[in-house]
Design a protein that fits this description.
The protein has 14 helices and 16 strands. With 402 residues, the chain is α/β, with parallel strands linked by helices. Strands 7-8-10-11-12-13-14-15 form an 8-stranded mixed barrel. Helix 2 packs parallel to helix 3 and helix 8 packs parallel to helix 9. The chain is globular, with a radius of gyration of 23 Å. It starts with 5 loop residues before the first strand and ends with a helix.
Length: 402
């Protein structure tokens, strides 16, 4: 049986050494070590990620929760084990949790650490998952020059993933996803370049190229009398840019399209510390007629007050919550989020519908809109045009036979 790749994040050298020695006794060959969160993130990026993070969530100096969120967003970790001495009430809460920051919670190792308990947690993980097979050294993040060159040559392309009305199968819109069609490395996903694009402050340039590609595609569809809402991802920091807001407005005018054709998705955890300027630009987008969606809902810590104050009109529930729809906790999360969205007069989109069972589960709860590989995979623009032709024809035939 393959062993999982593991990162041990522990500020105390003695405790860290104990964990590493225990893992060595269990035959785990690939163990990374870090004594703080920044070092841990650098290790994850350098090796291409791990299966499991072992960390002391009670150690405030480590800021484990922030690290786990960043690792999950970058696709650099899958599960977490807490090696902490927790208050009994807190321990009971953590033990019952299935996910934290999008990572599967395998359990809690209490002090003193016991080899048998660690073995059971790792064995349970390996029985449910195939440990990732990654090279010991991954490809480094692209350099600033490489990204500039890719932007100049138009290598960053908009790909499109449809969203559907679950009860009818009717198209509800399309999300625009960034892909780097690299000349030598093939099609790269955001996990392989987005951190670098943000670090080099090139996110606006990439977004503007994707926006232009998306609006041009809408022009083609308009001539075919097909109307479509496009959803774009925005990083909260982009909303500090007055010029970008003006660019969106001018692009709509140039293409002769109403603001209602665009919806902008912002990750929930990017809205935790929102400035007056960001609030102003959110309102400006809504006044243009654009929709606003809170992406990865349930993975951050937004408050009811925040939801009521900001001009969002859609919630997008993270796919982690629907992967086990046969379990009561998952159904409760989906049902409560649906009730919250309706009470706030928002639509709810279910992400991550990857199987028929998940589809049937969210449909049975009354969810309206869904997205996921089971329904349709992301595709390049020319493939979307062919897909739409088939889909529209199929919907027309279904309507005629009804």
């Amino acid at each position: 049986m393959a062993h999982p790749r593991i990162l041990v994040l522990e500020s105390q050298r003695f405790q860290r050494n104990v964990l590493v020695k225990m893992l060595d006794q269990l035959g785990v060959p690939a163990v990374l070590q870090a004594n703080d969160s920044e070092h841990a993130m650098a290790q994850l990026q350098a090796c291409g990620g791990v299966d499991i993070v072992l960390c002391d969530v009670a150690d405030r100096s480590l800021d484990c929760l922030e690290l786990l969120q960043r690792a999950r967003q970058a696709g650099l970790a899958r599960a977490v084990v807490f090696c902490s001495e927790l208050h009994p009430a807190l321990r009971r809460s953590v033990v019952r949790m299935r996910y934290l920051s999008g990572l599967q919670v395998l359990g809690v190792l209490s002090q003193p650490l016991q080899l048998r308990a660690l073995r059971q947690l790792l064995r349970g993980y390996c029985q449910r998952h195939t440990p990732s097979v990654r090279p010991s050294v991954s490809k480094a993040l692209p350099t600033e020059q490489e990204i500039h060159q890719g932007l100049a040559l138009g290598e960053f392309r908009a790909w499109f993933q449809p969203k559907f009305m679950l009860s009818t199968g009717r198209l509800a819109g399309v999300e625009v996803l960034a892909r780097w069609e690299h000349p030598t490395r093939g099609v790269l996903l955001p996990a392989e370049f987005l951190a670098a694009v943000l670090a080099y402050d090139l996110i606006d340039q990439m977004f503007m190229q994707l926006l232009e590609q998306g609006l041009s595609l809408l022009g083609v569809l308009r001539r075919q009398q097909i109307q479509l809402e496009l959803a774009f991802n925005l990083h909260a920091s982009q909303l500090l840019n007055n010029e970008l807001m003006g660019h969106i407005q001018q692009a709509l005018l140039r293409h002769g399209l109403p603001g209602s054709t665009l919806l902008f998705e912002l990750a929930e955890n990017g809205l935790l510390d929102i400035s007056p300027r960001i609030q102003e630009h959110l309102l400006r987008l809504r006044m243009l007629g654009c929709g606003l969606s809170i992406d990865d809902f349930g993975m951050g810590f937004s408050s009811l007050k925040l939801l009521c104050q900001l001009p969002f009109n859609q919630l997008k529930l993270d796919g982690e919550f629907v992967r086990h729809m046969d379990e009561p906790l998952s159904r409760a999360m989906v049902a409560s989020t649906l009730a919250l969205a309706r009470s706030l007069d928002m639509s709810l989109v279910i992400e991550g519908i990857g199987t028929q069972r998940t589809y049937e589960g969210v449909l049975a709860l009354g969810c309206d809109i869904g997205q996921g590989f089971y329904l349709a995979r992301p595709m390049a623009g020319h493939r979307l045009l062919m897909w739409l032709e088939t889909h529209v024809a199929g919907q027309s035939a279904a309507s005629d036979n009804a």
